[in-house]
Amino acid sequence: METVKFDELQLDDRILRAVTDMGFEAASPIQAQAIPVQMEGRDVVGQAQTGTGKTAAFGIPLLQKIDPRSKKLQAIALCPTRELAIQVADEIRKLAKYMHGIKVLPIYGGQDIVRQIRGLKEGTQIVIGTPGRVMDHMRRKTIRCEHIHTVIMDEADEMLNMGFLEDMETILSQLPEERQTVMFSATMPMEIQNIARRFQKEPVTVKVVKKELTVPKVTQYYYEVKPKTKVEVMCRLLDMYAPRLSIAFCNTKRQVDELVQELQGRGYFAEGLHGDLKQMQRDRVMNSFRNGTTEILVATDVAARGIDVDNVEAVFNYDIPQDDEYYVHRIGRTGRAGKDGIAFSFVVGKEVYKLRDIQRYCKTKIIPQAIPSLDDITTIKAEKIMEQVMELIRETDLTKMVNLIERTVLTEEECTSLDVAAALLKLSMGEENEDIIDSGRPARSLDDLDRYGRDGGGRGRRDGRSSRDGRGSRYGRDSRYDREDRDDMARLFVNIGKSQNIRPGDVLGAVAGETGISGKLVGSIDMYDNYTFVEVPREYADAVLRAMKDVKIKGKNVHVEKANTRGR
Ligand code: AMP
CB under 8 Å to 3, separation ≥6 — which residues? Predict the structure, then answer.
């Protein structure tokens, strides 16, 4: 994987400064290809979708061409939705931060047209608009086309899906002949290819050529999150799985710094690694990660290249990678030397489609998971502490402590030894945050995205139910205190729990029914908000896993795997 730095692309210094401010470490693969071609003035067909850095891929060469001294409209970018128009305008404004006199205006249906006309008259050089409203302004002559030298169609296939084909054709046919026409589209249906044929001149197609990649055998989960809750979700997963060493990947240097600060502020041993660090700082961070002083390494893709550490137990895709190949490289940092590894990806909004593509291309399985609730974590933390407590009771002499507690209980009237135990447990569990995350249901299955359409028909909507009341419940024999007797039993993890309206009996029924083993042989069933642990005789574990592969419980697809005894 070759890295192209922005300073190799012969960009205007002011754009370079802006890119540095935005924290971009290197050009994304689509940028590395599209920027030079567009800067040559060629027409471009870019096959890329959201999350690949496509906006800057067409935005940077566009800005190179704009003359800030002329107050005439020089470029139009067409977008399928108002959200995208606003987003693209924001990104281009950020890139133009040091280019004084450049005005970028988003225009879309639903907004006051008089205000838009005023904006257009104030010397706007770049319009980012939805096709319907752009046509409207063309008819009113509030958008004049004579000086337009560049037109960009962003998410052309989406514009087609939304019925804008004719509008696009009308707009393109009214623009000056002498112009540069750039089109970005995730897919290339026939109608889009026709547009390219009719309205572009010998376009150069740019897309990231995919190599055959071997995906490491690593358990891969993903979570649908909101930008504001990402850190909290990451901390919950760190607490729940307790990996010794992990690497979190971010797309920008700035995000690396922010995440390190957040994690350090919450008491985690985290350090950052990115291109701004001097060699000495790099070495210090890497040594501290290798010897385990730093437990979480937060890095950009470029900086993490060449890192060779064997015991990384978890990888976090804090930002979804901009390229499929990055994904494979990232998750390959764990699960080395025959050890188990786990990878967690966070997706925000539409990024879920990027992840679906990664899954398809890498021919791998990225399993949707519900964000663990605080109750889930509290219960698991308490279980872990209780396991240590039982070990201490078995293996050490606690007479002195027993005497101390006896004395306290005798002198403090309203206190029993049980209260003391409970308070000590609370102390050792540390502070809990308020449950600010709605962790009700698992993310959408990536395979289902196509079936339910782009917006998922509301499937991705959270149901607003808090799982705060959902304490873990046990069913059958209590496994907590007799774990050493349970060598004959294997613990399995099922990714469904109380929040999905499942009862322990449903899990028992499914295991017994699907595998044919007697329900009596099934051990304890520990049910939490979003997942369940079930114990089965070790000799049947593999058969149960096989039998449960494509099983539904109460109509819901489930995923069953061996529980990770350290983390869970
Ligand atoms: P896009 O594919 O244009 O929707 O971009 C997705 C996100 O990636 C946006 O937040 C961009 O600011 C960001 N981005 C674009 N180029 C880069 C880059 N070279 N390095 C890191 N982030 C980038």
Answer: 26, 27, 302, 305
